[in-house]
Amino acid sequence: MDSTKRPLVFAANWKMNKTIGEAIDYVYALRPLVKTSPNQILLGVPFTVLRVMADYCQGSNLIPGAQNMYEKDEGAFTGEISGKMLLDAGAKFVILGHSERRGIFHESNEFVNQKLKKAVEIGLKPIVCIGETGEEREQGHTTKVLTHQLKRSLEGLDPTQIGDIMLAYEPLWAIGTNNTATPAVSQDVHLFCRRWISKEFGEKAADKIVILYGGSVRPDNAAAILEQKDIDGVLVGTASLSAESFGKIVNCLETKHLNFT
Ligand code: PEP
């Protein structure tokens, strides 16, 4: 499979951080650092700063997006935000099924699947997160867990839609722990996911789908991760909160995928 056909993606996940003023300062600091990057730079921000981010990112290579959505368009769903509302506020993508949503807010694969179908239907690019716990890995259940998550979360999509979504492999034992998966371990899992997609949805979809790695990515380990053939980018939490460190991650690798158009 030819990795030069896929864009290289750097996605920030700010989680529940930053006020409007802090978000604006961040964009001013990041823009000059990454202005020559040929890659996709995505900023997953809180709902409250999305509209402002969409304005401040205009004319730059920064792409604003959200960290969650609800599957319905509108109605009596107190506290929820629809994909349509996200598009209206300027989001271009949405992170779905993050392990914090699955763990703290009990989101099931089926729930993620409903949101995913809606995001695809309305043209909001989804990043679907999957990953195993440390215990599941120790017990040798990694591929079983991932297969289950992939099967249930992607159910009902057709191969042309699969090629247009992004997956993020985020092992739970690596998130926010400083315990990054080694490049070899991540490459193995990414290849496993790509082969699974190929078997279920065809080689074309597997060739096209962008698979990100997430879990304690930092400026000093990002390049080694990104050099792996089946790793198309990174989803970054903690190290994306500072424009300087996220800028270093975006600029850590100059040669991979430069020919992508
Ligand atoms: C995340 O939560 O998506 C994440 C990858 O966090 P961190 O980079 O802090 O491990």
How would you characterize the overall build of this protein?
The chain is built from twelve helices and eight strands. The protein has an eight-stranded parallel barrel, surrounded by six helices. With 261 residues, the protein is an alpha/beta fold. Bound molecules: phosphoenolpyruvate.
Q: What is the alpha-carbon Rg in Å?
A: 17 Å
Order of helices and strands: EHEHEHEHHEHHHEHHEHEH
Strand content: 5-15%
Counting DSSP H or I runs of 4 or more residues, the number of helices is: 12
Beginning-to-end CA distance, first to last residue: 17 Å
Helix/strand-derived class?
alpha/beta
Shape field: globular
How many β-strand runs?
8
User: Kindly state the mean pLDDT as a whole number?
Assistant: 94
Helix content: 40-55%
Describe the largest sheet.
Answer: 8 strands, parallel, barrel
Major beta sheet, strand line-up? 1-2-3-4-5-6-7-8
Q: Write out the distinct hetero groups bound to the structure.
A: phosphoenolpyruvate
Low-pLDDT segments: none
Brief write-up:
This protein has helices at 20-34, 47-57, 83-89, 99-104, 109-122, 134-138, 142-154, 159-162, 183-201, 203-208, 222-226, 243-250, and strands spanning 9-13, 40-44, 62-66, 93-96, 125-130, 166-169, 210-214, 233-236. It is an alpha/beta fold and 261 residues long. An 8-stranded parallel beta barrel has the order 1-2-3-4-5-6-7-8, surrounded by 6 helices.
